[in-house]
Amino acid sequence: MPKVTVIIPAFNSERFIRSAIDSVLGQTYRDFEIVVVDDGSDDGTAEIAESYHDPVRCIRKAKGGTSSARNFGILDSTSEYIAFLDSDDLWLPHKLERQIAVLEANPDIGLCYVAIEQFGEGAYSRVEADEYPDYCEALLLYSCIVTGSCSSVMMRRNLIEKIGVFDTNLTNLKTGNFGSG
After folding, report:
1. pLDDT, tens digit, for every residue of 114-130?
2. Is the pTM of this model over 0.85?
3. Closest Cα to residue 149, out of 99, 96, 86?
4. I need a labelling partner for 26 at 20 to 30 A (CA). Which of 34, 35, 121, 139 fits?
């Protein structure tokens, strides 16, 4: 059983899915599986994902949204750690290695996230991963403390077992809440 499951929810992502998968396959940390959850795509997303072999697998489901696809991947996985990657995002090569090091060195931490870099159409920005002295206070003040998107997150399976999966009624596009993209 791999130590990390990387869950990639995908809907009509044939333009990006190969690059997303390849950015995971290019990681310096190698004890992982990649689960692409095709969320009812009507393009070639699933076929592209299925053209890969171990450690990549694709599972198909009826369209239900990003949170539903993430939950489907979580329930399908058995690894100690879960990492999320949106199908139109990329990881730098040391992401998993660095996050595993933090979680392994700090057994009391359930979730960690990284800085993000955004680019496109001539624009570039970097959003740092802040460290807060009191995360409860930070959540009250800032609503969401995770940098950027869910693509920056790695968490322990036992945390998911304690708090539950994504609420499929929440979307950051409609309500501003962390839940799906």
Report:
1. 765 655 566 544 455 55
2. no
3. 86
4. 121
